[in-house]
Amino acid sequence: MPKWSYSSMNNHTIPDGVYYAKIIKANFDAVSKNGKALWQFTLQLSGVKATLLHNIVVDDSIPQAWVAGWIAKMAECFSVPEGSEDYLDWVNTVGIIEITHKEYNGVDYPRPKFYKPEAGKKALAQFKAAKDAEHAAQIEFEEFSREAGVPEEDLPRSKQTAKDFQFADDFKAFDPDEITF
Questions:
Q1: Strand, coil or helix: what is 27?
Q2: What is the mean pLDDT of residues 106-117?
Q3: Contacts of 42 by beta carbon, 8 Å cutoff, 6+ apart
Q4: Kind and range of the H or E run holding 107
């Protein structure tokens, strides 16, 4: 079972990675600061204490084929009926997304990529395997260094801690095909 957390953190601190995401809020009547119509979603991410605000501009200033494509990708990811604007069809649905960061006006912003359900399971498994391998390599290096007699204070300090690997460990406790809420 993924660990869900309801406390928010700044969007900019969400680490790159693959996450289960649950839509906890959907607003189809939102308006941007510039007056453009938005579909606005609040996504809760598993494994981190974070929520992510995701907006889709549905204003006429954007080619409607692009808008329809973005909405269709997100709907498929979260198994929402095609074309639905019903709040209840979207809220509390779960999908798999990948977060990467992209710089915009000098600030790093998280960018979600929405996976189709089967592709998402593969991406999640690959991400977990990479995190597990990274964790194993760090432990192996530390053990080798200690066996070689390197004093603890001379070991290089990684920016990663055991807590950073908690995300990968969260996925050892359940089968992604059997998620229930």
A1: strand
A2: 84
A3: 23, 24, 25, 26, 51, 52, 53, 54
A4: strand 107-114
CA-to-CA distance for 121 and 10, rounded, in angstroms? 26
Domain boundaries, the chain: 11-117, 120-178
Helix axes 64-77, 117-147, angle to 10 degrees: 70
d(CA 131, CA 121): 15
How far, in Å, CA of 160 to CA of 176, rounded?
A: 26
Report yes or no on whether pTM surpasses 0.70.
no
By percentage, how much of the chain surpasses pLDDT 90? 8
Q: Is the pLDDT of residue 156 over 80?
A: no
Q: CB–CB of 13/107 below 8 Å?
A: no
